[in-house]
Design brief:
By secondary structure, the chain is an alpha/beta fold. 31% of the residues lie in helices and 18% in strands.
Length: 242
């Protein structure tokens, strides 16, 4: 059984591909009402994006509630460049037999420009090869740590990650361009933490936010902005590249 969290589809794509190759099923943790029983499984897997060199809050909370088992357990994170110590930290709260990182297109368009199409396509092609190898390793139940940590992992995964979770997850800078927004409400229905509400046909943001960037990347009208810079930036939609 594979559990995934995905803001903009990268981790869902990776989870679905691995599930297909190892003949297992992938479940979106945002849509699960109960913590499932794990007794009849061959293995347990977790797939999620890296947020500020850490594990996203919903995945951390989910894993903390999961019963410990003796089943073969793996984790795969997807990241734009590197994962820091996220998976080592995760393995201290839940035993992992194997850990992997898969480099995927960067969806963090509030921090930097969308990557060029050629880079996105190259990353997806390389990811496909990584997924084949990871799936084979999972079938063979190989142990190991295959994670690109990047430079200064301790600083990134402790100080910067703490700062991100404490100060950088406010919704204050999200807003909607009222002329472009057609009030479809997709942002509100898609938000995994239901923080977006429609008022007078336009979205408003409550405080809590995972920072998954689904709303800003997936708005069909490109009407959602964050601060001043995103108006000129592209949006990341994995379906455009598959
Ligand atoms: C809030 C946030 C923080 C991120 N931090 C990192 C990071 O520390 N390192 C990195 O390589 N990529 C980082 N990224 C990029 C994502 O991890 C990457 O694009 C991931 O594949 C997105 O997966 P998803 O489409 O399943 O949400 C970040 C993205 C977001 C939204």
């Amino acid at each position: 059984m594979i559990f995934y969290f995905s803001g903009t589809g990268n981790s869902k794509w990776v989870a679905d591909k691995i599930a297909e190759k190892i003949c297992d099923k992938a479940y979106d943790i945002s849509e699960l009402n109960d913590i499932p029983k794990l007794s009849y499984e061959k293995q347990i897997g977790f797939v999620f994006p890296i947020y500020a060199w850490g594990v996203p809050e919903p995945m951390n909370l989910f894993i903390k509630k999961l019963k410990k088992t003796n089943l073969f357990t793996f984790a795969v994170c997807t990241c734009g460049a590197n994962a820091g110590l996220a998976l080592k930290k995760l393995s201290s709260i839940y035993h992992l037999d194997s850990s992997y990182s898969v480099i995927m297109p960067n969806n963090y368009i509030i921090g930097s420009e969308l990557e060029k199409k050629s880079i996105i396509l190259k990353k997806l092609k390389n990811a496909q090869n990584d997924i084949d190898k990871i799936s084979q390793n999972i079938i063979e139940q190989k142990n190991g740590y295959f994670v690109k940590e990047g430079m200064f992992p301790i600083i990134k995964s402790t100080f910067i990650n703490k700062g991100f979770n404490k100060f950088a997850r406010s919704t204050n800078h999200f807003y909607v361009n009222k002329e472009k927004c057609n009030g479809c409400g997709l942002c509100a229905t898609m938000c995994p933490i239901h923080t977006i509400e429609m008022h007078n046909g336009k979205p408003t943001w409550n405080d809590k936010c995972y920072r998954c960037l689904r709303c800003i990347n997936k708005c069909p009208q490109v009407a959602i902005q964050y601060g001043k810079k995103t108006a000129k930036r592209g949006r990341y939609n994995i379906d455009e590249y598959l």
